[in-house]
Amino acid sequence: MDLIYLLIAVIILGLVFYLLYWLIGQLPLPAPFRTVAIVILGLIAVLVLLGILFGGINLPRLRI
Q: Which of 7, 17, 41, 59 has the fewest CB neighbours in a 10 Å radius?
């Protein structure tokens, strides 16, 4: 069951980060600021996924 919860968490986080990526693309930012924002968003996504993978971030269990 732990693998299912991990998969659900990764899918939800992926949707959230994709939504933020899309939102950054819609904002009228100049080119260097948009690139910096996307890089920062990517770094945050990688750090969150590594934290989940190595157990640094505890996610609440879903009761299905």
A: 7
